[in-house]
Design goal:
The structure holds three protein chains of three kinds.
Chain A: H1 2-8, H2 11-15, H3 24-31, H4 33-40, H5 46-63, H6 65-85, E1 88-89, E2 97-98, H7 102-108, H8 111-141, H9 149-162, H10 167-176, H11 181-188, H12 203-213, H13 216-228, H14 231-239, H15 244-272, H16 276-281, H17 295-305, H18 309-334
Antiparallel strand pairs in A: 1-2
Helix pairs in contact in A: 5-6, 6-18, 8-12, 8-13, 8-15, 8-17, 9-13, 13-15, 15-18, 17-18
Chain B: H1 6-13, H2 15-25, E1 39-46, H3 49-65, E2 69-76, H4 78-90, E3 97-100, H5 105-110, H6 130-136, E4 144-146, E5 152-157, H7 158-164, H8 176-189, H9 204-213, H10 229-244, H11 261-264, E6 270-274, H12 277-282, E7 290-294, E8 312-315, H13 321-336, H14 338-344, H15 354-363, H16 366-380, H17 396-408, H18 414-431
Parallel strand pairs in B: 1-2, 1-3
Antiparallel strand pairs in B: 3-8, 4-8, 5-6, 5-7
Chain C: H1 2-14, H2 19-53, H3 60-63, H4 75-81, H5 89-119, H6 125-137, H7 144-153, H8 161-168, H9 173-183, H10 188-196, H11 201-212, H12 214-230, H13 233-238, H14 247-252, H15 263-296
Helix pairs in contact in C: 4-15, 5-8, 5-9, 5-12, 6-9, 9-12, 10-11, 12-15
The chains are: A mainly alpha, B alpha/beta, C mainly alpha.
Protein name (chain A): Sugar ABC transporter permease
Subcellular location (chain A): Cell membrane
Transmembrane segments (chain A): 59-87, 113-142, 154-172, 203-226, 247-266, 278-300, 312-333
């Protein structure tokens, strides 16, 4: 059955710049299976359509039951609690005290807050494209047609397994430290290096390198996405005489765009929230002199080291708003470049 | 509605969820002690795996002697310990006995987490003098107990001194000025290309020694800063002289402020630190012998400038009397038993109990003897009281590290960085008011 | 495997093989492999260094950082294995319990939620989807304390419930979002056809969508395994007794920020703890291939 239908969705469908939806709701209104197919079926009528909608609504809530329970019991309490705490002075050890907007006012004049914003913004805008480009490139190389793929994939995934381990702090010093590998290499050319980790103008770059080094997760998602592209689309393209390059630009890339989009969204969110690696490598300080003070690291320092959980919550919600705005922009722009198979 | 307690707060934010909580909690949680029956006590501490093993064994010793008391241990590495502790305190699910990280002592005190130890018969304080007890008190109340003690020291590599044919300034000439001159000379002229010392301008208790000699202190009795920008700048200047002369490693050379001893230990002659560090750190370089000197002094240092730093533990305030008595007997064992001390070793410094200090000499290693001696010499000296970091300053050490980095990386001047540091710490204190 | 065969067969069929062509292709393959090897070694050099270091005596790891050890020992492994008074296998078993439970939970709950959000039409959908995204956006550090208070009220501290139950309730919004995106790459004609054939949403989900979203399920499994296996903060906070510790919490006790004395053991045990994850990854990523082999060549 699957095969019969596949041929229906031909290669032209996939590469044509269809009106890609920005979020699932838009897609649903245009491409709801029941609503559309009912027209082709004699049995369907206006009231049947309503019935189907109601039935779908009920079915959806059955599917969503665990999620609804999870949201009601586990997620919503901390979510609303942190929203409330954002308007309080809460030192964790005693009860929160409502202080209105003072946490938000405090941010405006907080130099370290602005330092953290700047560090995080630079990190997001530089390291996300780098890491994604790198991951996509390797996913394409490791997709198929090579002996020992499993081995290569495993090897290239290794750094990501270790990326958040405490051992990374020491590894990174062995590479970018004063007596590290980079400086050993420079010494060959007669250049005397310095500690790249401890120079405020290069420290952030070493963390970007670390981020690119741990490209395994987006790579795996890309690999899975490549596997998701139906083989017969390539077959159809070959029948049409499309070259390898044309297959890549007209089949692979368009059909991969939802996955590229997904990776872009999540890596952007992940980079806005970057914490673990900076925490490990700077020993939690964000040093030297705040040059790796990521936003979430600062938030953590305020909440857990300085016991300003109210201020930390306010910081968290400001970050969330910033991420939401960037994500909304991504969703808006996705209309112009993301192609869904479900239109 | 400007304040609310945690429970109402939870109810208002997640009423539905709390309904479920009530339902589910009926089948959860046991509260440890039944009156009259066996008692269970939670003991929380930090450290590395060796300390975990030693304290577990020592606490088992206690349970053998007190079969009616069971100890549940909660252990974690230092940073992780504090994360978990903060979370537990927010939920009022605190271990019955817990170690206190130095910067948090007064923060916890202000928030009423300590149970008063006065009136707990199970706690034997007979080895301590009245003056000792006075030093242990916080705001006039005995609610924490020191379980170790250390002092700021200069640790030097005796093997290097001998190899290079150098001698440290004598006890009578043991001043900051002379030490700096000596280190610069050593750095420039020793035959093996060794360096003077790592850059440790952010070492807390060495700085405290400097302040007290200058008639100032870190913190005052009423929870304010006890030092001014001038004294602070003087301290940074002493380090800058060594750094610019090359006698102190640069931030780059030592890969950051607060360097790893394993990475710098072979390159330097001396290191500023706390007296207890010799025990672990000397073992990293078994070919060298390490010795300790107290921190240097200024020629006309203020009277009573010497001091001892006590790491503390406390009994949680929210437990009932029977539980508290059981906890007190654990604490008593911890601070008074020589078997306990033998098992856990001296990594938390010399025992504050003067009787134990003497007994410890019998089983201490050479390095440990060195440490005991330097602490004992300070114990005997005249000491004016010292006060713990007030609430709102729990990150003052990282603020200081940042100031030291600013200076050593030549991104701001000493005066500027000193004033910025004082302003930031002061803002933290003001925030808490 | 099947695809590789199919593909090479297809290629052979389309272009008549000439001997010079074969030679060129072989040469290309050799270059490709050589390039990959050089690149790979550069990428995993830090791990090689770590591996070598774990066989050095602890105090030499940092003071003699070269790749060729002057002294080789197994003591890091033997001491590390018994690091907290019990064999390290205890922590492996604990980690396995948490990890397997989390995988089952995530696969079950997230796929259900994702199907509803991606394919079914109902009023609150936009809101639910926004909530899902929002919960990915809020930094976890401000959620930790309220969540801990909640679980501690339930009396669940020092049990695995706070680690496992949320997974069965689709709280890992990341995976819901991932699956939604994957489901949306599946041509809608497929489930439309099933629906026309009279299968309801449940049968369509089970027989059409679930088999077709296999790569997403495998990806979810891989990530859940790795992230849960490596997670430090959650087990640290909820598991207080050493007997309950997972591997990362046990590893952290070897960190001595002052002296780095446990570093040899840390490396040795980190390496051992990588093995299950690595094996799992190599095993699971095969299904990324097989997923397409079965659906594509049916």
């Amino acid at each position: 059955m699957a095969r019969r239908i596949r041929h229906g969705a031909g290669v032209r469908d996939a590469s044509a710049p269809a009106s890609a939806a920005s979020d699932p709701d838009d897609a649903a209104s245009s491409g709801n299976p029941t609503a559309e197919s009912s027209g082709t079926r004699a049995a369907a009528s206006g009231s049947g359509r309503k019935f189907h909608l109601r039935r779908q609504g009920r079915a959806a809530h059955v599917f969503l039951l665990p999620w609804l329970l999870g949201f009601g019991l586990v997620t919503s309490v901390p979510l609303f609690a942190s929203l409330y705490l954002a308007f309080t002075d809460y030192n964790v050890l005693s009860s929160p005290r409502f202080t209105g907007l003072s946490n938000f006012e405090r941010m405006l004049s907080d130099d370290r807050f602005w330092a953290a914003v700047s560090v995080t913004a630079r990190y997001v805008f530089i390291s996300v494209p780098l890491q994604l480009g790198f991951a996509l490139l390797l996913a394409l190389i490791l997709d198929r047609g090579l002996r020992g793929l499993a081995f290569y994939r495993g090897a290239f995934y290794l750094p990501s397994l270790l990326g958040s381990s405490v051992a990374v702090a020491i590894l990174w010093r062995e590479i970018f430290g004063h007596d590290g590998l980079v400086n050993d290499a420079l010494a060959w050319f007669g250049i005397e290096g310095q500690s790249w980790l401890q120079n405020p103008s290069t420290a952030l770059s070493t963390l970007m390198v670390l981020n690119v080094w741990t490209f395994g997760s987006p790579m795996v998602i890309f690999l899975a996405g490549l596997r998701q592209i139906p083989e017969d689309l390539y077959e159809a393209a070959r029948v049409d005489g499309a070259s390898k390059i044309r297959q890549f630009t007209h089949v692979t890339i368009p059909l991969l765009t939802p996955i590229i989009f997904f990776n872009l969204i999540l890596q952007t969110i992940g980079s806005f929230q970057a914490f673990t690696q900076a925490h490990i490598i700077s020993g939690g300080t964000g040093g030297p002199v705040d040059s790796t003070l990521f936003y979430t690291l600062y938030l953590y320092q305020q909440g857990f080291n300085s016991f300003n959980m109210g201020y930390a919550s306010a910081l968290a919600w400001v970050l969330m708003l910033a991420i939401a705005v960037v994500t909304a922009i991504h969703f808006f722009l996705s209309k112009y470049w993301v192609f869904y198979g479900d239109d | 509605m400007s304040t609310m307690d945690r429970r109402t707060f939870l109810k208002t934010t997640g009423a539905g969820a709390l309904g479920a909580t009530a339902l589910l909690s009926a089948c959860g949680s046991d509260d440890g002690s039944a009156p009259g029956g066996p008692t269970s006590v939670r003991y929380a501490w930090w450290g590395n795996n060796i300390r975990q093993q030693n304290y577990t064994t020592a606490l088992e010793l206690f349970q053998e002697e007190h079969p009616d008391i069971t100890i549940e241990t909660e252990f974690a590495e230092y940073t992780a310990f504090q994360e978990r502790m903060t979370t537990q305190m927010a939920a009022r699910d605190v271990p019955d006995i817990f170690w206190i990280a130095s910067a948090q002592v007064m923060t916890y005190e202000k928030n009423g987490l300590y149970r008063s130890l006065e009136g707990l018969d199970a706690l034997d304080l007979s080895d301590f003098s009245d003056q000792d007890i006075e030093f242990f008190k916080l705001n006039g109340e005995l609610n924490t107990m020191p379980h170790g003690s250390f002092v700021p020291v200069v640790r030097y590599n005796q093997t290097y001194l001998e190899e290079d044919g150098y001698e440290l300034p004598g006890d009578a000439d043991w001043t900051w000025e002379n030490l700096a001159d000596f280190l610069i000379d050593y750095n420039d002229n020793n035959p093996n290309g060794r360096r003077g010392l790592p850059y440790d301008a952010d070492h807390d208790i060495s700085f405290e020694a400097w302040l007290r000699q200058h008639g100032q202190q870190l913190w005052t009795e009423d929870g304010e800063m006890g030092f001014d920008a001038e004294a602070l700048a003087g301290w940074f200047e002493w380090w800058e002289r060594l750094r610019t002369a090359g006698a102190a490693l640069s931030i780059s050379e030592q890969d950051g402020i607060g360097p790893d001893w394993a990475e710098v230990g072979e390159r330097v002659l001396v290191k500023f630190g706390s007296s207890n560090h010799i025990i672990d750190e000397a073992q990293v370089f078994p070919d060298s012998t390490f010795k300790l000197r107290p921190a240097p002094a200024i020629p006309d240092a203020a009277a009573g400038h010497k001091f001892i730093y006590y790491p503390r533990l406390a009994v949680y305030q929210g437990i009932d009397d029977a539980q508290a008595q059981a906890a007190a007997s654990v604490v008593s064992f911890n601070i008074n038993s020589v078997d306990f001390l033998k098992t856990v070793g001296l990594t938390m410094g010399a025992p504050p109990n003067p009787r134990l200090l003497q007994e410890a000499y019998e089983f201490a290693s050479d390095d440990e003897q060195e440490m005991l001696a330097v602490v004992e010499s300070e114990t005997d000296a005249e000491r004016s009281p010292r006060y713990e970091a007030p609430a709102g300053t729990s990150t003052w050490r990282t603020v200081m590290s940042r100031a030291a980095e600013e200076i050593a990386l030549e991104r701001s001047g000493i005066a500027e960085a000193s004033e910025a540091m004082i302003a930031e710490i002061q803002a933290g204190i003001d925030q808490e008011k | 495997m099947a695809t590789m065969l199919a593909e090479s067969r297809a290629r052979r069929a389309s272009r008549p093989p000439s001997s010079s062509h074969v030679v060129r292709r072989r040469r290309n393959a050799v270059f490709k492999h050589a390039g990959l090897w050089v690149f790979m070694i550069a990428m995993i050099y830090p791990l090689i260094w770590m591996g070598v270091s774990s066989f050095k005596p602890g105090n030499l790891v940092l003071s003699e950082p070269g790749l060729i050890p002057s002294e080789v020992t197994l003591e890091n492994f033997t001491e590390g294995w018994n690091v907290l008074n019990r064999p390290f296998s205890v922590f492996f078993v604990n980690s396995l319990i948490v990890t397997v439970g989390s995988i089952v939970g995530n696969l079950f709950s997230c796929s259900l939620a994702a199907y509803a959000l991606a394919r079914l039409q109902f009023k609150a959908r936009k809101v639910y989807f926004a909530i899902t995204l929002a919960s990915v956006m809020l930094p976890m550090h401000v959620l930790v304390i309220p969540q801990y208070i909640f679980f501690s009220e339930l009396g669940w501290v020092n049990t695995y419930f706070p680690l496992l139950i949320p997974k069965f309730l689709a709280t890992d919004a990341f995976f819901v979002f991932l699956m939604v995106q994957f489901i949306r790459t599946i041509p809608r004609d497929l489930d439309r056809a099933a629906w026309i054939d009279g299968a309801g949403p449940f049968l369509t989900f089970w027989h059409v969508i679930l088999p077709l979203m296999r790569p997403a399920l495998v990806t979810t499994t891989i990530f859940t395994f790795i992230w849960t296996w490596n997670d430090f903060f959650t087990p640290l906070i909820y598991l207080t007794s050493v007997d309950m510790y997972t591997v990362p919490v046990a590893l952290s006790s070897m960190v001595d920020s002052e002296t780095q004395s446990g570093i040899g053991m840390l490396f040795a045990m980190s390496l051992l703890s990588l093995i299950p994850v690595m094996l799992f990854f190599v095993f699971a990523q095969r299904y990324l291939i097989r997923g397409i082999a079965t659906t594509g060549l049916k």
